[in-house]
Here is the input.
Amino acid sequence: MVPLMVAADQIASSSLTGASVVSACALLFTVASFWWLNARQGRLKAWEPHAFAAIVHGSTARLRLPLILHNTGPKPIVVQDITLTFPDEPASHLPLLWVSSPSRLQPGPDEEAKLPAGFVVPGREAQQLFIEFEAPFSGFLPEPRDYKAQLQVRVGHRKGWRPLLTFSLRAANIIDPDRYTVYNNAPLGLTKEDQKRADAALVELLVQQGDDSSPGSGRQRNSSNDDDDAGTSR
Here is the structure.
């Protein structure tokens, strides 16, 4: 009888241990599922814009981009600030700052000025936004070529600036830099005639800017641009 009782106790103990393991695994699965579905911090995603609006007048460069931001996680993400930088350009090319949040891509006289303000991208949702950037000084005057541009953001749950999107800004498509209008950001988006017009307009703008600066600084900047063109042109 004693061996039978010992065997029964071992079976009962083994069953209890197995039930405990199953219960613990079920609890862990429930907690992990809840975190994944409701408490996980996602990240922002963005895609290359197919068009942009631009004006380069005097010492001011202004760009307007249509952006789609997607929050991959369930928790909302607070976007505090956005800036547009050019990683491959010299330090004299200052970043373009977020100056307004228009309601459309095509600029017009009937627009209401909307100052930049932080916004929220809800969890697992996407938002379309129009963000307008401007260079505060004459640090960026686009040449008729492609630029490597990078959007950087500051979000509420992280510290400092973080890269959001790197894309090609095709400044060669800017045909009339003195007029604030929309241009295609796709490659091969211009005819040969339009390309010649764009090149001539931007070159004329660079020459005018060089005439406004001192002779020494103008020569120095031109040589710097020549070096950069050799390394960044496509």
